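2024-03-11 09:14:02 INFO receiving multi-entity request
2024-03-11 09:14:02 INFO entity count = two
2024-03-11 09:14:03 INFO echoing inputs for audit
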Amino acid sequence: MNTAMQRDRVLEGVWLLLVLSTVATWILGDERLFGGDAAVAAVLILAISAVKVWLIVAYFMEVRQAPLVLRAAFLAYLGVVFASLAGLYLLR
Amino acid sequence: MTITDSENRRAGPDSSPHAPAEAGTWVFILGDLTIFALMFGAFIWSRADHEVDFLAGHHAMSRTSGALMTLTLLVSSLAVVLAVERIRAGVMRSARRLLFLAIACGSLFGVLKAVEYHDKFSHGHDLVASQFWAFYFGLTGIHLAHVLIGMIALGVVASSTRGRSRLAPRRLRLVEGVAVFWHMVDAVWIVLFALFYLVR
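2024-03-11 09:21:47 INFO inference complete, emitting structure
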């Protein structure tokens, strides 16, 4: 298998992970889960969404192979955004 | 840098760091994402002040239709990332087919969104119905505008591959910029899906 085909397989694998995690968050959106405790579901949904966004940024936007400054910028962005969203959700 | 050179840089897993597109594209993308981040934050901040409105809003959302919209954008993103690989390899016909698939998925997303907007309007949920609906129409509307711009750009990319077996490095970087923009639109939707359809 040549490298181009290997790259396609990796991208398809990442895509499958994105689809499966979409289904996972869809299930977590069911309000009967966790005895109706919306906060547990919310934090899990936000955490999975953060991973999904990173997969898109890293593999589809090719930031994984990018210089450190770009990788750091996106990781900082994701850290700040999702920590703030979860924090505001839980604390406010 | 020649095309072969840039191909080689991308080929190996341990090749030196290299980002697609022009540097300016990344400045724009990070700027756009920052504006979206502020809007996400404003939404969650406002939630605490309008808890009843937000709960009622969440109950009116169909997480299944939100998931379907997510899937259409995920298919389109896979098509675009594979199309860029094909363009770099000079397999233009295959690249164009993938780009048309991505545009078709973008159109389907637009149709699903239009159906959803119509459904919300017919139930009296308009822009001024409550804080929740103001955020919903504002944020998804701005996102939808990004989808439309992205589809036009993907169409331009598809037509730029006609009659060429290789793209000049500068043109290739523009194509990569459009692809990066399209993936950003997908990434933003994943957050919108979580905030409006899933988190209660």
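2024-03-11 09:21:48 INFO post-check: The CA atoms of residues 15 and 43 of chain A lie 23 Å apart.
2024-03-11 09:21:48 INFO post-check: Chain A touches chain B through 46 residues (CB under 8 Å).
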